Amino acid sequence: MNYETVIGLEVHVHLKTKSKLFCGCSTEFGSVPNSNICPVCTGQPGTLPVLNKKAVEFAVLTGLATNCKIAKHSIFARKNYFYPDLPKNYQISQYELPLCEKGFLEIDTDGQTKKIGITRIHLEEDAGKLLHAIGAQELDYSLVDYNRTGIPLLEIVSEPDIRSPEEASVYVQAVREILRAVGVSDCNMEEGSLRCDANINLWVHEDGKKYATPIAEIKNMNSFRSIRNALEYEAKRQVREWEQSRLVLEDVGKTTRGYVEAKGITVLQRAKEEASDYRYFPEPDLLP
């Protein structure tokens, strides 16, 4: 029996624009909570979005730097879900026609060069930030800071071409170097300017057959070390789960797990939503 780790990454990057994606509010980090907000980014009735031209230019520049095909026609879509940090109860994102797709970048691991495919790069607005503690004081309630709501966010989705936690860390570092070199983002992970989610499962090769274990999406990875540690733990956990249950992808589907850095483990958060659960439809207030 042989286990092959299969990883795909979603890298989320704040673009280095002075204003938000659909309004004129500042994107300055560290401002007083809820000071960089307006009726547009807080979803007040009657407001209309106006697209930030510089954000589109930065997205196209990123696509060119990662060997993507740039779309001649692209549209925004509403991604519908309910959460306290999303004041409109939908996120303006892209679904069917992203700005960039079918690219790649090359990484060096173990003295060899490997090509990692990029499925798509799309532009969307970020959500707000929930605060569950003030300093060391845990709260019995959550606070919401909407300063981050509406900041231009670029999502770079890789193909599942990554085969180890080390490769995943090297890939994210390569993405950061490219984005800093072309000047579209500062990619400061400590400020949340670069965040990463990973989709990981195993291909189990046994008796000439290949079985795919259920996919887990791993969140809350805030450093290159946490990316490696979280994926190493999750791969081992999936080996144990396979040996106990022998469940395959078709049995369970996809789940979302959070990485708890203090304990070095991942914990189940929820069953992962399907695209149909978000009820995507074209954004009627923005032209293609």
Could you walk me through the main structural features you see in this protein, from its secondary elements to its overall organization?
- There is one protein chain.
- Helix 2 packs antiparallel against helix 3.
- A hairpin with a 2-residue loop joins strand 10 and strand 11.
- Helix content is 20%, strand content 38%.
- It has one domain.
- The chain is globular, with a radius of gyration of 19 Å.
- With 288 residues, the protein is of the alpha+beta class.
- The strands form 3 sheets. Strands 1, 2, 5, 6, 9, 10, 11, 12, 13 and 14 form a 10-stranded mixed beta sheet that branches. Strands 4-3-15 form a 3-stranded antiparallel beta sheet, with no helix packed on it. A two-stranded antiparallel ribbon has the order 7-8.
- The protein has 4 helices and 15 strands.
- The model has no long low-confidence stretch (mean pLDDT 94).
